[in-house]
Fold:
Amino acid sequence: MSVVVNRSLGPEGRGTYAVLITVATVALHLGHLSVEESHVALWSRVGDSAVITANCLLFGMALGCACAVAAGIVVVNLGPGVVPVTDHGLLALALAWIPFAMTEKLLARLMVLKARIDVNNWSGLLSVGVHCPLLVGLATMGRLSLWCVVALWTMSAALPLAVLLPAARPRLRHCDVGVARRALRLGLRYHTGLVSMFLLLRADILILGAMTTTAEVGLYAAAVTLMELGRVPPDIVANLAMPRQLEYDERAAAGFTAEATRIAALAATGSVALLCVTAPFVVPAVYGPAFTGSVGPLFGLAPGLWLIGASRPVGAFLLRLDRPLLNSATAVVALTINLGLNLALIPSCGTVGSALASSTGYGVLAVLQILWFLRVTRIPLRHLIPRHSDIRYLWGTACHSEPSKVG
Structure:
């Protein structure tokens, strides 16, 4: 889908699309008040999972609609000089994505907590299974405009609900205002850190949009899209590990987290290395010569995205410690470094400078989280470094289709 969009819109259109997506996703992450994470923390404390399930639907739609309206007002008042969006109709279409995406986000995390990864798989496959053919079909007919791309993106957030809602079976009569207030209070304690963590991954697009051209934003966005594919394998490991990290006692969970981190590091190494080796040939061949400039930023992003992917299980473990201020502090430090370096490097180095700045920020976050984990658990650093036995196990699993080590 990325190939089709990039070839159809070109760097300029891809840049406008990236800005719209970033505005919508920033609004979602600013406005979801970290309810998703508070539900993780409350999962073992609230006896009735039906209450949290019902509250997911309530929070998703109510907060989502409020976020969409607030974001539209802010962007219009700031004007195109700050946020380069001139078509307000297109902006409204992009912001309509937020309520569906927020509900899907909450219900998908609920399925992870219930160890129903199959439901999330089917919901994602339904979304892509409809989104991709429509995108390709319109491109084949020469009708894939920016409006069509944004409309299909918005639709893709609603489609997973066709699978998630029947699986979760939320009943509004089970909504509990008291639990909702607890979730909001707890979520707000984590919100500064989680918003900072999200902005760490997305603020570079908005800074580039304000300081450079939309064509350069398009080149950078293509690099980010490709490099984030490298995070998929470690993210899978982290999602498989999360239920055990929450169920075990703290000592056992810490040991399991160290094991999962070694596996995630190996998965991140293989995927990021593959992308870096193939990018100089694949990017111009697949996206077109106009996107050759995406290769440099991709190399710049690689080290940081490897670190943040490898440390994903550690970040999940830290949530169970219920230390929101310390959690927030690590993300705020990383974001501050990221923003400062972006502002310093973009004028002289452009997209490559932004990539290096962001990669540094990602690395700072990963290192701070790992140091915190080692201090709390007193696990030696060597236990996080992959071993020959881990490599042999992964190789054997791949060759013989044995169950995952962290499944």
